[in-house]
Write a structure and sequence with these properties.
The chain has 252 residues and is an alpha/beta fold. The protein has a domain of 175 residues: Rossmann fold. The chain is built from 11 helices and 10 strands. The strands form 2 sheets. It has a 6-stranded mixed β-sheet, with helices on both faces. A 4-stranded antiparallel β-sheet has the order 2-1-4-5, covered by helices on one side. The termini are far apart.
Length: 252
Amino acid sequence: MLLDVHDIEVFYGKIAALKGISLQVDEGEIVALIGANGAGKTTTLKTISGLRPLTAGKILFEGSDISRMPGHKRVVAGIGHAPEGRGIFPGMTVQENLLMGSYARKGRQADSELDEVYELFPRLAERKSQFGGTMSGGEQQMLAIGRALMAKPKVLLLDEPSMGLAPILVAQIFSIITEINRRGTTVLLVEQNATQALQLADRAYVLETGTVVKTAAARDLLTDPQVQAAYLGGDLDTAAVAESSGEGEPTA
């Protein structure tokens, strides 16, 4: 088990944001968290990466308890986070933003990581001298993901990577996430587009008001009537789902 979250509770003042959430992520998986706004998805990622303190429960990473570990040490341990809203440095160039992602890995050359990020995101290579704040939303999202990859994470936490992007860019971002996973990085994904997330993921958790209410293989959740009604806009074309997974293709 790469990441094991046990009954974590998180408060904002007196308001409980997470009420005993548990989830597991195996090495090599893509796991999605879906749910309505305010369900606790972003808080879950922030707590795993050390940006929010937990009140109860524990977080195990590669078998070690990291519940009280500072966030910067979690980066070194192998947890990368591309946050909601991107959080790039607008007054820095693309390459400077990327190099900030490798800061925690002091004393190590970042050339190979830069090469890998530029291979995944050719647009960033083309604009490496451009200030981050002058880039489009899609380019900034690429930059945020690329910066997180600069630390060579074992698990990459992605928070709403498609938010505010045009459909063609959404397809591109999801294709890149698939490639990142294919290259060996485990992914924990929070995504507003539940259909896209479930089509991409191996497994998924459904969150409601700070609790996990359902977990299953992502394909099973795609055809779950309750999930369809609540998060997928009603009935989903199951034939299209089968086709997208290759299940509907003829065999030789």
